[in-house]
């Protein structure tokens, strides 16, 4: 089970690949952070945001987790998609309802 709530149907190959990678990072915590954001926004991202998100997916889990939770600046990733990703989780949008 991946945890995804979104089907890749209707997405282009690039977005399908990103959706898969967002849910298969290596640590479950980052799978949930990246995967939920991808589920919610992948279809609506601009091409520039898609390119930036592809780069963000390549960041090591401890670094990315630290940037999101501590507010530490993200060198070379100070992009609108990174700020949107951080805000998604800080606002609680990425938390599933129980």
Automatic annotation (TrEMBL):
Superkingdom in the source lineage: Bacteria
Keyword annotations: Chaperone
Gene3D superfamilies of this UniProt entry?
Flavinator of succinate dehydrogenase
Q: Does the record bear Chaperone in its keywords? A: yes
Q: Which family does it belong to?
A: Belongs to the SdhE FAD assembly factor family.
Entry protein name: FAD assembly factor SdhE
Q: Which organism is it from?
A: Ancylobacter koreensis
């Amino acid at each position: 089970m991946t945890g995804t709530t979104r089907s890749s149907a209707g997405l282009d190959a690039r977005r399908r690949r990103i959706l898969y990678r967002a849910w298969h990072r290596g640590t479950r915590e980052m799978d949930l952070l990246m995967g939920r954001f991808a589920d919610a926004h992948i279809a609506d991202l601009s091409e520039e945001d898609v390119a930036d998100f592809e780069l963000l997916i390549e960041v090591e889990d401890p670094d990315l987790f630290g940037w999101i939770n501590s507010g530490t600046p993200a060198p070379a990733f100070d992009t609108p998609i990174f700020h949107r990703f951080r805000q998604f989780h800080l606002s609680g949008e990425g938390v599933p309802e129980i």
